[in-house]
Design a protein that fits this description.
Elements: H1 2-20, E1 30-37, E2 43-50, E3 55-63, E4 68-75, E5 82-88, E6 95-99, E7 103-109, E8 118-121, H2 123-134, H3 140-153, H4 158-169, H5 177-185, H6 204-212, H7 219-230, H8 238-253, H9 260-271, H10 281-296, E9 307-309, E10 315-317, E11 327-333, H11 338-357, E12 363-369, H12 377-383, E13 390-393, H13 401-405, E14 412-417, E15 422-424, H14 429-438
Parallel strand pairs: 1-7, 11-12, 12-13
Antiparallel strand pairs: 1-4, 2-3, 2-5, 5-6, 7-8, 9-10, 11-14, 14-15
Helix pairs in contact: 3-4, 4-6, 7-9, 8-9, 9-10
């Protein structure tokens, strides 16, 4: 009997030792189990928000089919840690979840207010959900302190990086110019700009915006901003495209600040070569066209002369139009251009609103047919509701004006003052209103 027990013990020890030598497989993905009650026919959506516009990207969704049901969101492949959003399709309210690779969550809910959900497993998200509910009654200082406590508690989670950014967003911008410059140069010291988790974060866009407004928005400062972020960044990183696309969008946002040199610097130094294939051929063509227009029309340059005619062959010279108005908007378009079909009616409604809002400002709208085929010209004018514009075409068969205006593609837009000076080279409603309002 003793010999038998010894042999069994030896076998157990041997088998345990053998098992310990096997490589342990790393678990990946996430498992989110939700116990639901009284939610039949409700749809749950698990999604991310990222990109230049923080668009909603659905990771998974499911419909609850009974009054008491356990539903599971499951992903088995390795994932990049991210902040996910959970909501009912029928409701606007969202709940944030910090999902690191190999996360397991157990949640419970019995009504369609997502904010009443309970976390029974996963301490990190139990704390995160509690913070979201409690923070509604906290001021910024209290929120920072609450986040700091969780930062120290979860040093390696995606929640740590997310909360560090949240705290940076509410940090006071220095009042003294020299301190602002210093703050800008050390702005990203709290994180690694190459961290692969950054491109999925919903608050990275706000962080970049706060970074840019540390100093006055002008070409010189903006070029420094671009270099501080991109100069030593590996273009193979997904973050490279994130930061670059954000700068492109932000330059458009601040277009009324005349940041041509900043755009040109971004294009020539970080986009044009496209060494890491961050941009499509179509995007490159668009950026290159803007660069060429910037070179052709630096701000303060007067728009070239162009002779145009209406459908009755009455001629107009551009130089005799703009002196009679505070602002003149010129659009080059083609009736077959899909973007033109969408943009021209929107431009019309935008200017109708602006005319009502600023009745003392005289504005003229000119639509120039930029297509040798005139067969759809008048139909387009009627269908796209721009009959109240001055609708003109060029009688020049060589269309030499295209070279003067870099108007080889459609649409192209120019916003002029009464001296014919180019104020904007795009249709940017926010920038247009800012110029009208402040001048």
């Amino acid at each position: 009997m003793k010999i038998t027990k010894i042999l069994v013990l030896f076998a157990l020890l041997f088998s345990t030792n053998s098992f310990s030598q096997k490589p342990k497989l790393e678990a990946n993905g996430y498992t989110i189990t939700i116990t639901t009650k009284n939610l039949k026919k409700e749809k749950l959506i698990l999604f991310l928000k990222y990109g230049t516009t923080n668009q909603m990207v659905v990771s998974d969704s499911l419909t609850i089919t009974s009054n008491e049901q356990k539903v599971i969101f499951k992903k088995k492949s390795r994932l990049i840690d991210a902040i996910y959003f959970l909501k009912f399709a029928s409701q606007k309210n969202e709940l944030l979840l910090a999902i690191d690779n190999n996360s397991t969550l157990s949640l419970a809910i019995d009504n369609n207010n997502i904010e009443t959900i309970l976390c029974n497993q996963n301490a990190l998200n139990k704390d995160f959900i509690a913070f979201q509910i409690a923070s509604k009654a906290l001021d910024n200082t209290q929120k920072v302190l609450a986040r700091e406590r969780l930062l120290s508690k979860y040093p390696t989670s995606i929640l740590n990086l997310y909360f560090k950014i949240e705290n940076k967003l509410v940090a006071k911008i220095p009042e003294i110019a020299e301190e602002r410059i210093k703050s800008q140069s050390t702005f990203f010291n709290f994180m690694d700009k190459n961290d692969q988790r950054i491109y999925l974060l919903p608050n990275i866009n706000q962080l970049l915006y706060v970074f840019t407004i540390q100093t006055v928005i002008n070409d010189e400062n903006y070029i420094k901003n671009i270099d501080l972020v991109l100069k030593k960044l590996d273009c193979n990183s997904k973050n490279y495209a994130v930061y670059t696309r954000w700068f492109l969008a932000n330059l458009s946002y601040f277009e009324s600040k005349n940041l041509d040199l900043a755009f040109n610097h971004l294009f020539k130094n970080y986009i044009e070569s496209n060494r890491c294939k961050s941009f499509s051929a179509g995007e490159l063509a668009t950026f290159r066209n803007k660069y060429q227009t910037n070179k052709l029309f630096p701000y303060t340059k007067k728009v070239p002369e162009i002779i145009l005619a209406d459908k009755d062959a009455k001629e107009y010279s551009l130089s005799t139009i703009y002196p009679n108005y505070d602002y003149t908007f010129v659009a080059f378009y083609s009736p077959t251009c899909h973007h033109c079909q969408q943009t021209m009616p929107f431009a019309n409604s935008t200017f109708e609103t602006l005319k009502s809002k600023y009745p003392t400002k005289k504005m003229q709208l000119i639509a120039v047919l930029n297509d040798p085929d005139e067969s759809k010209w008048q139909t387009f004018i009627a269908e796209r509701k721009i009959s109240n514009w001055l609708n003109l075409k060029s009688n020049d068969s060589t269309r030499a004006y295209q070279n003067d205006f870099n108007a080889y593609s459609n649409p192209n837009f120019f916003f002029l003052d009464k001296k014919g000076t180019v104020l904007l080279k795009s249709f940017n409603p926010m920038a247009i209103e800012e110029l009208i309002k402040n001048n």
